[in-house]
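User: Okay, second chain of the day. Same drill as before: sequence in, structure tokens out.
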Amino acid sequence: VQLQASGGGLVQPGGSLRLSCVVYGFTVDYYAMGWFRQAPGKEREAVSCLSRHNDGVYVADSVKGRFTAFRENDKNTFYLQMTDLKPDDTAVYYCGTDRGFSEQRLCRNLADNWGQGTLVTVSS
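Assistant: Same drill. Structure tokens below.
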């Protein structure tokens, strides 16, 4: 299992970014997939998780209405579309899976397979 995340960068408040996580070793909708983030001095937290086959979704309250996780099966890639970004969204973002099927379990317990992080900085 290998996950390769990219797409971070510097963006102004109110801006948008799309993070990508290319999946190697399994098809992207076989397991639950999630996005997580870790801000300086804080613990890693769940942002959004999708169940296997997209029939369940978890979204953290702090990003509801602004962030959307989705998959593109033909590219075997998992995405996080982020809009209306705020300075508090500044963090290293990670994609991950626990090789299970439940988005609730994944976001509650965090992943055990991680991509490398990608830094998102929201600043004017």
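Residues 103-109 form the longest helix (7 residues).

User: Thanks, on to the next one.
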